Amino acid sequence: MAHTSRRTFLKQGTLAATTALAGFAAQSKVYAGETSVLKIGIIGCGGRGCGAVGDAMSIDPNIKLTHAADLFPEKVANAMAALKEQLGDRIAVTPETMFSGFDGYKKVLESDVDIVFLTTPQFFRPQMLKEAIAAGKHVFAEKPVAVDGAGIRMILEASEMARQKGLNLVSGLCNRYWPGTRDFVAKLQDGAIGDIIAAKANRMGGDLWKRPRREGDTEMSYQMLNWVNFCWMASEYINDVTIHQIDVALWCMGDPTPKSAMGMGGRLVRRGPDTGDMYDTMAVTYEFEDGRMLQANSRQIPGAWSDASTWLYGSKGYAQIRNCAGNLEIFGPDPYKHREKYPMNGLQAEHKTLLDAIRSGGQTYVNNGQYMANSTGACIMGRMAAYTGKVVTWEDMLNDELPKPSALDLNAVPPTLPNEQGKYKIAMPVVGWDFM
After folding, report:
1. Mean pLDDT, all residues of the chain
2. CATH of the domain at 122
3. In the chain, what's the furthest Cα-to-Cα distance?
4. Against a cut of 0.85, is the pTM above it?
């Protein structure tokens, strides 16, 4: 198994950030100006995938959705019908270009689409990203991008492959694309609260959604439809949702890679059958090489206090970033509240960035691979620390691998069985399985 150290990770990030753009236009597809039509293929036709299509089409009239895939055929058909009703002929998917099953995504990658939207559960993201880049596609990859260290290593490989090929890669960590948040973070990084010495990331919400068992469902199909409740597909709530607030904290701090994480958590209300196998409460403390700290708090309990915020503590004050474009405020000797209005939101801006880079023919290039791997890796560290009760290092995370199903088949045996749901767990075993 390949071993990637924290030092190597940081070195790769520096090299990637300074890679010259010369030759990208020759290696990648070139699109002249804003009038050429770009074809999109979507892999994962749930609400987030359909939302991404709508966001992209709201800011660029010259894109079409031509291919679509999902594990379940009815999800593809229903999603395309809904999108077509909303967006008309720009949804050019036909029965012949709709695919299903575990291998359906390969048909999208074999097509003539220019861009692939990867919006499946994150369990599938590393392999699909690697194959999409190998197929010569530009990619929008929804967050997070992996569930374990093995996946992070594959994401880093795919990101570097994209850089070498001149293929653009944009992450769904959308807070980095909200115009107001970008301006506010720039102000913080320019010293508005002095040196940032600590941070806090909160994501407090209600119960996770779940779908009832259907007649004829296998355990595997049931868990696939309820993926957000199972660790092997989501790698905990901290990875699936709190990642937004953790990512903003890391961004403001200069994207340091955590040296270590220690955490705790458990189940207070998620008990009994059909409640998945994840915690409903988790708290993680990260330490960085320079001694700075980040505290991350997650909770999913109905009726409790809700919050989605990142707090930055500096040598001259402190700041909050809450609800992306709103509640951006500095407290201390030089108070400030960001009040500017912007015509575009972050969900639109991330796609505009990708589309503009593709249309530039290599004059501009975007690759979010390094920070999306760093932020996802930090969240995986937090899950590992809470599950094991140990201090977990970046190297520990990179060499971790979650249990996987016996095969990619709806009749396969998933890692979590029905009688294991709703029970406390500690210390995840390491189980090897070849995705290929």
Report:
1. 90
2. 3.40.50.720
3. 63
4. yes
